[in-house]
Amino acid sequence: MNSPLNDPASRGSASDDDHAGTPPDALADGLTNADRDHSGQPLPARVRRAPFKGDRAVEAGLTWSQQEIWALIEKAAPHDHVYNVVEEFRVPPGVRPTEDECLDALSFLLSRHESLRSVFPAKPGGRVVQRVLTEGELPVEFVDTPTTTGEEIAALKAYFATRRFAFADELPLRLVLLVTDGRVWGGVYVFSHMAVDWYALQHLAVEVTEYFRNGRTLPPLPPDAMTSAGLAAWQESPPGIRKRDRTLAHVASLYRDRPPLALPPAVADLPEESAYRQASLRSRAAHHAATRIAERTGQSVAAVIVGATALLLRDLTGSNRVDLHLTSSQRFGRDSRTTIATLMQETYFSVDLVGADLLQAVKRSWLAAITAFQNSGCDADSMNRLLADLGGGPDAPLTFSYCINDRRTLPADTAVRRDVSAADLLPHTAFTWLPVTEEEPFYLIVDDGEDEGLDGGEGGGAHLEFSLTCDVRHVPEAVMETFLRDLERSLVALADSDSGSGIGADAGSDTGSGSDA
């Protein structure tokens, strides 16, 4: 989309002027696929526009999170679309807005949240900044559908799954809305990861629902609400610099005298373009088991998953010291929990698992994660210099082979049935091979969701989905599948075992070196 973001004459809803250059036959059909702001998606669509006007225009450097994401985008180009968030949605029950009501809602939200009206141009010399626009408009495509079955969604998702953003002058949101009998019932959205993360999207969905159910308005944001531009300014302030220095000292203390955990020795010789595979294991049993273990130990589900993964990596590599990048949304402060921005950043995690069983691995991993998160946050240039110094210089910096990206969004207190064992749910497990989205040596993404049951809810339930990408020269396909299935089995075995009821006593006596702090 080449949106005329700063052209006042172009703002507002669609008008006759918007159809300049549109073929007469398209206008006769009520379609504007030739509109300058049409995305190019294959379905006939009408393009309308949601104008916005925010409280301020501001330009700031990138936040630490945005710097990490921008580096990934540059590395992945021209395939950086993998860092977009493309999802379908359906309008909540009882809410069937008109097109105008949807445009009004978008105008409200774009005016409300600076990250949604930001672009990312490069300054002279190449430095990329975030520029918050005070006013402009978002092109929105409306597709008329005969029914609400959703047959059109697959074509839209397939198209947008490979589309890149024009970061310098394009708003970080694309939207196609599906219309039946004059009412919007669903659609497909695309967000740039430079603007939002998974938790921001979750809160944004809550805001959209509340907006329509509360008379198409929301309480104003607090005057001191965190923004991406404000966070960037804080990170360059003395408190931000102190946080950066703590992070650098933490990483240096871990790896000054040793490298991070390496991949297993290569067992295959493949060209780079054929070296990566991605597998998925979707498991209600794992969700049930991890939740039960977390309840009994008093730890988080995240610590349970990280501990189980680290223990399997110990067995895979033969190393008692396991080093991981933990990708997480840095939303520990109360003021950041509902911020519409991207706060994802990699954290440097290291745990000693000498003599540990799964119970002990969970506890040690929880302590190690706390240490890592307390010493997390740094600009890309400073971290790159440190990793170069710890490694072999700028051309051979210290590298990390293993990463876990925990993207779960279900409430932490999601209940599990007490009359069902985790093993009872194993028949629902599904293992599949997926198209590779990111070429990483060992990259585990953890998602969750709800499976729909039969009428009345029978057979449904929450699940965990583990998506594992590996360099198969070091971790062959058979090992990948075994790893995911062993991850599930280890959680299920502990949750259903007699020792599970004594977790507090067993784990409480462990004082293993959960961190180097």
Describe this structure in words.
With 517 residues, the chain is α+β, with helices and mostly antiparallel strands. It folds into two domains: 8-231, Chloramphenicol Acetyltransferase; 237-258 and 276-508, Chloramphenicol Acetyltransferase, CATH 3.30.559. It is built from 13 helices and 15 strands. The strands form three sheets. It has a seven-stranded mixed beta sheet. The protein has a five-stranded mixed beta sheet with strand order 1-6-7-8-3. Strands 2-5-4 form a three-stranded antiparallel beta sheet, covered by helices on one side. Helix 9 (301-317) packs across helix 10. It starts with 23 loop residues before the first helix and ends in a 9-residue tail after the last helix.
* Discrete helix count: 13
The SSE string, one letter per element, is: HEEHEHEEEHEEHHHEHHEEHHEEEEHH
Envelope shape: globular
The overall strand count is 15
Low-confidence stretches: 1-31, 500-517
Say what the CATH topology of the largest domain is. Answer: Chloramphenicol Acetyltransferase
**Main beta sheet, described?**
7 strands, mixed
For this structure, what is the CATH homologous superfamily of the largest domain?
Answer: Nonribosomal peptide synthetase, condensation domain
**What's the CATH architecture name of the largest domain?**
2-Layer Sandwich
The strands making up the biggest β-sheet line up spatially as 11-10-12-14-15-9-13
**Number of separate domains:** 2
Share of residues in helices: 25-40%
Q: State the end-to-end distance.
A: 49 Å
| Mean pLDDT score | 88
Quaternary organisation = single chain
